[in-house]
Amino acid sequence: MVETEAIANRQSSKPIPPEERLIVALDIPNTKQAKELVEHLGDSVSFYKLGLELFMAGGYFELVEWLRERGKRVFVDLKFFDVPETVASAVRQLRQYGADFATVHGNDSMLKAAAGEKNGTKILAVTVLTSLDQGDMEDLGFEADINKIVLSRARRALEVGCDGVISSGLEAQDLRKSLGENFLIITPGIRPGSNQRIDDQKRTVDVEDAFHKGADYIVVGRPIRDADDPKAAAEDVQARIRSLFAADGGSARSVITPSAVNYRGG
After folding, report:
1. Of 49, 164, 203, 242, which is least packed with CB atoms within 10 Å of its CB?
2. What reaction does this catalyse (predicted)?
């Protein structure tokens, strides 16, 4: 019990380069604009998430290849949900593109099917979307509280072979306490510093809190994409991450003051 309590109170000690712990969500209308943003961000970002908007816009996998050619890591966030055989086939097809992460949003059999075909791609189980709160879950027919639902889904995902989970920072500490360190936690819904705009994200934390609670990676979209200067916003987040993962062996001790970067997005 003492050991799990310690785990729950320290940030990730996995050997992940600090600059790769920031994943920028390319929630952009088309690949042209996505490439322009990537080029503007330059070396300040090395990991990108591509979701449904770009998938429907066309040129999705050409963009994946374009990013890979430039040395970027890629997170395919399509939240596969279908009969297990189809999910397995989709993950198998994904192999040719060299994606680093892919999401599945389904039951145990779907998750197991995806995990069985991953071959280098980390399979991440979606627990509860960060745009949902307790009231939303009750509307969907779930009576248990969100923490219990997230923990249950995460435990089952790991049991069937998934590499990690998508979870808000609000549940990350409980996940670490209950399930240990040997899995990935990717946390969206990040609001750097004073950026607390009201929008569709309901379960949010800031950069420091996410990592203090045990996240391995954070996903940031609008606070970077919609900032007056996206590159400055990305560099500010990276500075926060470097401060947390300075040469202290992975323990979080220093917290920096929010910079003057003007974040617009949420």
Report:
1. 242
2. orotidine 5'-phosphate + H(+) = UMP + CO2
User: Which residues face 165 on adjacent strands?
Assistant: 125, 185
Could you give the angle at the alpha carbon of 132 between the alpha carbons of 128 and 136, nearest 5°?
Answer: 115
Other C-beta atoms closer than 10 Å to the C-beta of 210 total 32
pLDDT tier at 226 (50, 70, 90 boundaries)?
A: very high
| Region of residue 250 (left: phi > 0; alpha: psi -120 to 50; beta: else) | left
Over the stretch 230-242, which tens digit does the pLDDT of each residue have? 999 999 999 999 9
Which is higher by pLDDT, 88 or 106? 88
Query: Which parts are annotated binding residues for substrate?
Result: 27, 49, 77-86, 130, 191, 201, 221-222
Number of H helices, E strands in the chain: 12, 8
Cα–Cα distance for residue pair 48/144, rounded to 1 Å: 33
The letter for the amino acid at 126 is V
Contact 266, 195 (CB under 8 A): yes
Residue ranges covered by each domain of the chain: 2-244
Q: What gap in Å lies between CA 56 and CA 101, rounded to an integer?
A: 19
Q: Which residues are annotated as a binding site?
A: 27, 49, 77-86, 130, 191, 201, 221-222
DSSP 17: -
Architecture of domain 2-244: Alpha-Beta Barrel (3.20)
Q: Which residues are catalytic?
A: 77, 79, 82
H or E segment at 91? helix 84-94
This prediction's pTM: 0.84
Q: Are strands 101-104 and 73-80 parallel, antiparallel or unpaired?
A: parallel
Q: What is the pLDDT of residue 143?
A: 55
> Does residue 212 or residue 257 have the better pLDDT?
212
